[in-house]
Amino acid sequence: MTSPPAPSVHHADIHSLYLDHHAWLLGWLRKRLRHADNAADLAHDTFVHLLGKPTQLQEVRQPRAWLSVVARGLLIDRVRRQRVEKAYLEAIAHLPEAEMPSPESQLILLETLARIDAVLDGLAPKVRNAFLLSRLEGLGYKEIAERLNVSLSSVEKYMATAIRHCFLAQQ
């Protein structure tokens, strides 16, 4: 097993990658996002993300393909977070002012919801649906089995998988 590169070597590699491919990544993102500021933010976030990941850049054979995969993943995370934020803000919009959570509480809740959403996104669709039907709608396993048109034992397996996945995500 090889150890990760020394930080100075890693930073130098990222710097070289930035110099060689930043303009290309920015153009690639502009075409897809159609908004220069969002493209610039995402290009920046892509390289910042790479600084935090000890990767053997010498092993990356197609840096542009690799950068586009990293940027696409960050974009998906951003869109997911925006959807969660929008749903949360819509849910609390009708609350009386006295019951509104403080800005600090709202931020903590939004971050928690984004993490939960990311964990659930890692589940297979039927597993995720079974888990959500159980936890959000309060359905029993038999009702979930009927709703998903699967056996009761499948629902039990789905729930065990979902709970294990959530537990491991906390570690």
UniProtKB/TrEMBL annotation:
RNA polymerase sigma factor 70 region 4 type domain ranges (all copies): 114-166
Pfam families tied to this protein: Sigma70_r2, Sigma70_r4_2
Single GO BP term: DNA-templated transcription initiation
Presence of keyword Cell division: no
RNA polymerase sigma-70 region domain location: 17-83
Keywords from the named record: Sigma factor, Transcription, Transcription regulation
Record-level Gene Ontology MF annotations: DNA binding; sigma factor activity
Gene3D superfamilies associated with the record: 1.10.1740.10, Winged helix-like DNA-binding domain superfamily/Winged helix DNA-binding domain
Stretch forming the signal peptide: none
Family, similarity comment: Belongs to the sigma-70 factor family. ECF subfamily.
Protein name (database record): Sigma-70 family RNA polymerase sigma factor
Organism of provenance: Pseudomonas nicosulfuronedens
Organism phylogeny: Bacteria, Pseudomonadati, Pseudomonadota, Gammaproteobacteria, Pseudomonadales
